[in-house]
């Protein structure tokens, strides 16, 4: 009988902990986005024409492909050309080269390539989540390298970074 009296508080505590633990649930979304797929099913991604003073024509296709690939890999949204739940459009507004470091002979030793993209994100289900924002990213390269030799690689790297920034601000809803 004394043994039962000792077990009662332990069993009661164990049951209380079990009820508490099963009543709380933590969930993480591992798809990279914070979208409710019961509400959002489609997205329209328009072209991003180059409107910068300095133009590198392959950049448009590189950026657009990176954006579409990232969306398809990190969401379950279907891309469409017609009416959609979400829309993304914009333009490449900047493609700039600026000297960054000067060597002892007075010439630039590092050059920075900066790319800017203006994005208009339209949420047709919740207007208060619309975004019209410019995103920029850059990479530095040594002035001993010709831009034509590193341009494709830099544009790929910068496009990836821009797409992540855009995704986090729009579909990632961070």
Distance between the termini: 58 Å
Structural class: alpha/beta
**What share of the residues does DSSP label as strand, in percent?**
25-35%
Calculate Rg over CA atoms.
Answer: 25 Å
Quick one: overall form? globular
Largest sheet entry: 5 strands, mixed
Contiguous runs where pLDDT drops below 50 for at least 5 residues:
18-31
**Helical run tally:** 3
> Helix and strand string, N-terminal first?
HEHEEEEH
Strand order of the largest sheet: 2-1-3-4-5
Structure summary, number of beta strands? 5
Helicity level:
25-40%
Average predicted local confidence, pLDDT:
86
Describe the structure.
Helix 2 packs parallel to helix 3. The chain has three helices and five strands. Strands 2-1-3-4-5 form a five-stranded mixed sheet, with helices on one face. The protein has helices at residues 2-23, 58-74, 147-169; strands spanning 42-45, 78-79, 86-102, 108-123, 131-142. 36% of the residues lie in helices and 29% in strands. It has 174 residues and is α/β, with parallel strands linked by helices.
Can you give me a brief rundown of this structure?
The chain is α/β, with parallel strands linked by helices and 174 residues long.
Map the helices and strands.
Elements: H1 2-23, E1 42-45, H2 58-74, E2 78-79, E3 86-102, E4 108-123, E5 131-142, H3 147-169
Parallel strand pairs: 1-2, 1-3
Antiparallel strand pairs: 3-4, 4-5
Helix pairs in contact: 2-3
Key words describing this protein structure:
alpha/beta, 174 residues, five-stranded mixed sheet, 5 strands, globular
């Amino acid at each position: 009988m004394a043994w039962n009296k000792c077990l009662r508080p332990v069993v009661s505590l164990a049951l209380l902990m079990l009820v508490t633990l099963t009543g709380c649930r933590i969930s993480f979304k591992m798809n990279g986005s914070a979208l409710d797929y019961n509400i959002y099913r489609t997205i329209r991604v328009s072209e991003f024409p180059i409107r910068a003073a300095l133009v590198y024509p392959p950049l448009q296709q590189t950026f657009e492909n990176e954006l579409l690939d990232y969306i398809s890999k990190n969401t379950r949204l279907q891309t469409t050309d017609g009416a959609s739940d979400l829309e993304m459009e914009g333009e490449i507004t900047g493609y700039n080269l600026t000297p960054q470091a000067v060597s002892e002979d007075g010439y630039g030793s590092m050059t920075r390539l900066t790319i800017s993209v203006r994005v208009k994100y339209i949420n047709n289900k919740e207007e208060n989540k619309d975004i019209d924002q410019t995103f920029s990213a850059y990479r530095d390269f040594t002035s001993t390298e010709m831009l034509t030799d590193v341009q494709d690689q830099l544009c790929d790297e910068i496009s990836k970074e821009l797409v992540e920034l855009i995704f986090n601000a729009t579909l990632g809803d961070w």
